[in-house]
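Supplementary Methods, section 5.1.

A reviewer requested that the exact input to the structure prediction be made available. We therefore reproduce it here, unchanged from the version used in the analyses.
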Amino acid sequence: MAFSRKHKETIVDQYSEWVDKSQAMYILSYSKMNMPAIDEARKKLRDSNAQMHVVKNRLFKLVLDEKGLPYDEKFWENNNLVVFALEDAPAVAKLMNEITKGNDKFKVRAGYMDGRMLKAQQVAALADLPTLPVMRAMLLGTILAPASKLVRTMAEPARGLAAVIKANSEKQTA
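The structure derived from this sequence is encoded cell-by-cell as follows.
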C-alpha cells in the first residue's frame, strides 16, 4: 500500500516524538508473527510504561539520521519492531528478555540508549541490572546503614543502664 507524502511525514513525526520521549529503544526482529503474540507482548510492555511498534524501516532510518543516531544499512533490511522504553530502561529490557525467551517469533537485535547503539549482548547485560525501585531501595539501605548504627551505638549505654536499674528493682522486690 502506497502512502502519500503527507502521510509519510506524519509517520516520521510520530517516530521522532517516540524517540524523543524514550529513555531507550530496543529493536527486535520478527518472523512468523501473528497478532496474538504481538498483543501479548504489547500488554506486558504497557504495564512497564513502554510501547512496541512495527516500523517502516526506510522512514525510521530518516528519524535516526535526523537525530544523529548511528545504524548499519544491512541491519534495517529485515522486519523490525521497535520498543520504546519511556521510563525504566532496565525493566523494559528484562521484559523483552522474558518475551523473547523460548519464542522463535521475536529476537532482540540491538538498541539505543543515550545516543549510542547497543549490541544485543549489551541489551542482555542491561536486562541483568536491577530495576529502578530495587536500585533505590539498595541506595537507601546503604545511606541509612551508618545512621542506624550510630543511633544504636548512642542508645546502648542508656539501654544498659535501664537494664541494670530494672534488674536491681526486681532483685529488691524479690
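The longest helix spans residues 132-173. These observations are discussed further in the main text.
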